Amino acid sequence: MAARPVQFEREDALQLALQTFWRHGYEATPVAALADTMGLSKSSLYNSFGSKRDLLLEVIAKYAEARSAAIRRASESPGRLERLQELLVAGTADNDDGQGCLLVNMATELAAHDDDVRQSVRAGFFTMAQAFGQLLIAGKQAGEFDERLDATKTAQRLLNTAVGLCVLTKAGFSALELSPVIEHLLADLRA
User: Fold this and answer.
1) Which of 44, 119, 164, 188 could cysteine-pair with 40, CB 3.0–4.6 Å?
2) Closest listed residue to residue 94, CA positions, set 191, 28, 166
C-alpha cells in the first residue's frame, strides 16, 4: 500500500516557518516544534523542504522578497516620500514584539559560521537596496526627491537606516524615540 500523499499549502507552511524562525531564532527552534507549527510530520517536513537549514534558506529568500516587494510598491505612484516614511515607521512599530528583522537576526545568529546563510542574507539585503534604488529613481524622475541624490549610495543609506531602526527597536527604543532619525533622513531626500 502506497503512503498517503502529504496535503498542505506550501506558501502557508513557509509563512508559519518564517514566523517561527523569526520569533525564536534558528538554533532555539527544534525540528519537531517547527514541523508541529507547520502542521507537518517531521518526515513530511524533510521530504518537502529538505533539511531545517534548507527550509531556513527558503524562508530568508521569502522574507527578503516580501520586504523588497513592499518597497517596490511604494515606488509605483506619486507620494513616494510619504510611502517611504510609512515603510520606515512601520518597521519600528511592527517590531514592538521584539522580533526585529529576520535578515539581521539570521546574520547575527548564523552568518559568522554558515556561508550559505551569509550569502542568503546578503542577497536579501542587496534585493532590498535595489528596490530602494528603484524608489529613488522613480521619485527623482517625478520631482519628489532631490535630483542631485546618487540613487545607489542613497539606497544603501536607506537600507542601513532601515536595518538600524529594526535593531534599535529590538533593543527597546520606541517609535517615538526613533522618529527623529526618520524625519532627518526624509529631509535629506526632499526635492
Assistant:
1) 44
2) 166
Domains in the chain with CATH codes: 61-188 (1.10.357.10)
Residues 6+ apart with CB under 8 A from 26: 52, 56, 106, 109, 110
Q: Which residue has the cell 515603510?
A: 87
Convert the pLDDT of each residue in 57-112 to its tens digit: 999 999 999 999 999 999 998 999 999 999 999 888 765 567 889 999 999 999 99
User: Are the C-beta atoms of residues 74 and 138 closer than 8 Å to each other?
Assistant: no
Cell digits of residue 167: 535593531
Supply 140's cell numbers: 527623482
Tell me how long the chain is.
191
Q: Quote the CA–CA distance of 101 and 103 in Å, as a whole number.
A: 5
| Cβ-Cβ contacts under 8 Å for 136 (sequence gap 6 or more) | 145, 149, 151, 154, 155, 158, 189
Task: Render pLDDT for 39-51 as a digit per residue (tens, 0 to 9).
Answer: 999 999 999 999 9
Q: Which residues contact 147 (CB under 8 A, 6 or more apart)?
A: 140, 191
> Where do the H-state alpha helices sit in 5-145?
10-24, 31-38, 42-49, 52-74, 80-93, 102-106, 115-141
